[in-house]
Design brief:
The complex is a heterodimer of chains A (346) and B (277).
Chain A: H1 2-24, E1 29-34, H2 39-52, E2 57-62, H3 65-73, E3 79-82, H4 88-98, E4 101-115, E5 125-126, H5 128-136, H6 145-150, E6 162-166, H7 171-183, H8 185-190, E7 205-207, H9 209-219, E8 223-228, H10 229-235, E9 238-239, E10 241-243, E11 249-250, H11 254-262, E12 286-294, H12 300-314, H13 319-323, H14 331-342
Parallel strand pairs in A: 1-2, 1-3, 5-10, 6-7, 6-8
Antiparallel strand pairs in A: 3-12, 4-8, 4-9, 4-12, 10-11
Helix pairs in contact in A: 12-14
Chain B: H1 2-38, H2 44-48, H3 62-93, H4 96-111, H5 114-129, H6 134-158, H7 162-170, H8 175-186, H9 188-203, H10 207-210, H11 230-239, H12 243-269
The chains are: A alpha/beta (346), B mainly alpha (277).
């Protein structure tokens, strides 16, 4: 009967499918998730590493720093990535889940203040008070005298300011609000520093990921927001020159971020903030990004692959950082990262 | 009076035509737009290469195409046997409270948002297994397909003239054989249609895959590993700031639309409802 043949065929097909997929699955894969700030750098670097090491293929998904920490703690991924080290509560939860955590600085980047103002080409200048005023919702129009005073010679339209921010738990938000808290006592007391905050501006709209905020700014006239430098430059959106604590207006560039990092030679998971660094030519909103790994790797082979991958990433792999407008890790921080990796037991 | 009625009748007729035209035009506009934006992305790399990072040319979605097929096959292997048997039960055997409950629950299940089913699969499959996987995505999609298959199978089997089965029973055949060898083959067209519609329904789902299939930039067909899928690629790439990725996202959207169209048309044309409408 042809019906029986149909059933037989279906059973055979499913068997063959299960078998082939079991064979094809033999090659090792490492899975990671987290920071969207890291994503352009990681996707490039892991791609190149995979070409050199056919046995190590890395799957990194950009789901935001908060999501990365959560999935790492739930042990659904092999490593997490976040633009801010674990806070004490997150650390407690992670330790309860799988013991000690090793945190490794992997890259360095700048957060740019990007905007979409009709008829304004070039870089607007913003000082501390004006920037805080805009994000606090006190400055609500682009033709506000505070902005106009800093940008003599630029014709600013009468256009409402729309604050674009991250909707997901984000290390980029942490770095940006860390900076706002440093420069504005009112921000510090009323909003604070965190991966998600209550945005005080009435016009605030959220979007997911650096990519989402970049898209939102590009599509919304009058928008201002904060994104990782690589996303702003890839997107052709305008961004501001910010006044640093040395009183200079500085554009976010690889050099100005490196200058900021050089003001603080030693970083650790407990002392990592490099926003609002003084010093000539240093850009005020910068931060390291971190990878989280379990200190005790249950799968020795996977543990060795992870350590090998990140040892490469924090040294030779840094060349790919500059390719996508990230800043290579300073030498001493590379040493710090290597020491952290050496403590992993496989 | 008559003139007014005729006028009113004509007016409503035109209005109905307009609305029907608008409904069809919406689909036409979407399809036209997706073809216009997506067609330039369809080249050899698109179908044969795996994704590349930004700035490295020649990326494609080959792994996502295979991944989507794999997930859909897994979902079908789970949902079709269960759904078809449950549908047969409802049509021929089920009476009283249990049957009513099954019918009610499958109707409610049809309306459960797919993201909720994704979180369900994450909690019951991904978290205990400690990794994202193709099979968890298969489970999520199977749950979405199940009620569609149950209800279409029930309808199809119900439409088979009971006299045929009674004739078989009168000749002394066992009841289960009469159902499996006489009634079900008569309803085959309807059952296959239901299964194809179920597949078409889940083929474009992205929400339940976010926390199950997870996505994967490298080749993988391992059911226990994270896997790429077309809707995930569209979601991720359409959100990206890079023009080349947005282009691939449009191509992926076009591929999905073509896939769903082919399934729907196959379901409606190849099995034109012998005793099933």
């Amino acid at each position: 009967m042809h019906r029986n043949r149909f059933v037989l065929g279906l059973t055979g097909a499913s068997l063959a499918f299960v078998l082939t997929s079991a064979i094809a699955g033999a090659a090792g894969q490492l899975t990671g998730a987290g920071s969207s700030f890291d994503f352009p750098f990681f996707s490039r670097a892991f791609y190149e590493y995979g070409k050199q090491h056919a046995d190590v293929q890395v799957n990194y998904q950009s789901i935001g720093s908060g999501g990365g920490i959560q999935q790492f703690t739930a042990k659904t991924v092999d490593f997490g990535a976040s633009d801010v080290p674990l806070n004490p509560n997150e650390m407690k939860a992670a330790q309860a889940s799988n013991g000690d955590v090793v945190q490794v600085p992997v890259t360095l980047g700048g957060v740019v203040v990007a905007y979409n103002v009709q008829g304004v080409a070039g870089h607007l200048k913003l000082d501390q008070q004006t920037l805080a005023g805009i994000f606090l919702g006190k400055i609500t129009n682009w033709n506000d005298p505070a902005i106009a005073k800093l940008n003599a010679g630029t014709t600013l339209p009468s256009q409402a300011i729309v604050v674009a921010h991250r909707a997901d738990g984000s290390g980029t938000t942490y770095i940006f609000t860390d900076y706002l808290s440093k420069i504005s006592p009112q921000w510090k007391s009323s909003v604070g520093t965190a991966k998600t905050v209550n945005w005080p501006a009435q016009s605030a709209i959220g979007a997911k990921g650096n990519e989402g905020v970049a898209g939102l700014i590009r599509q919304t006239p009058g928008a201002i927001g904060y994104v990782e430098l690589a996303y702003a430059s890839q997107n052709d959106i305008s961004y501001a020159s910010l006044k640093n604590s040395a009183g200079q207006f500085v554009l976010p560039t690889v050099d100005s971020v490196r200058m900021a990092a050089s003001q603080k030679p030693n970083v650790s998971p407990d002392d990592y903030s490099i926003v609002d660094m003084g010093g000539a030519g240093s850009y005020p909103i910068a931060g390291y990004s971190w990878v989280m790994l379990w200190k005790n790797q249950s799968d020795a082979n996977k543990g060795k692959q992870l350590v090998g991958l990140f040892r490469w990433l924090v040294t030779d792999g840094q060349t790919y950082a500059t390719n996508v407008r990230y800043v290579g890790l300073p030498k001493n921080v590379q040493g710090e990262a290597d020491r952290a990796l050496a403590s992993i037991k496989t | 009076m008559l003139a007014l009625r005729q006028w009113w009748n004509g007016f409503m007729l035109v209005l109905a035509w307009l609305c029907a035209g608008l409904a069809a035009a919406t689909l036409a506009i979407i399809v036209f737009y997706v073809i216009q934006r997506g067609a330039p992305a369809l080249n050899g790399h698109f179908f044969l290469s795996v994704p590349t990072p930004v700035g490295v040319p020649g990326g494609g979605v080959a792994n996502a195409l295979i991944g989507s097929v794999e997930i859909i096959v897994m979902a079908s292997l789970i949902a079709i046997p269960i759904g078809v048997m449950a549908g047969i039960y409802l049509a021929l055997l089920g009476k009283g409270r249990l049957a009513d409950a099954v019918r009610f629950f499958s109707d409610v299940l049809t309306g459960v948002p797919s993201i909720a089913i994704g979180i369900f699969a994450y909690t019951v499959v991904v978290v205990p297994q400690k990794h994202f996987s193709a099979n968890s995505a298969g489970v999520a999609l199977a749950v979405i397909m199940l009620p569609i298959i149950v209800r279409t199978t029930e309808e199809a089997v119900r439409l088979v003239n009971p006299a045929i089965r009674e004739g078989a029973l009168a000749l002394g055949i066992e009841s289960w054989k009469a159902i499996l060898l006489v009634t079900v083959p008569c309803a085959r067209a309807g059952i296959v249609t239901g299964a194809l519609l179920g597949v078409a329904r889940v083929a474009g789902e992205s929400a339940p895959l976010l926390f199950t299939a997870f996505g994967n930039p490298v080749w993988s067909t391992n059911p226990n590993s994270p896997i790429a899928a077309l809707p995930l690629i569209v979601f991720q790439y359409a959100n990206s700031p890079y023009a080349e990725w947005q282009q691939i996202a449009w191509g992926g959207a076009l591929a999905l639309i073509v896939l769903v169209f082919v399934l729907n048309i196959t379901a409606r044309v190849l099995f034109p409802a012998k005793g099933y409408r």
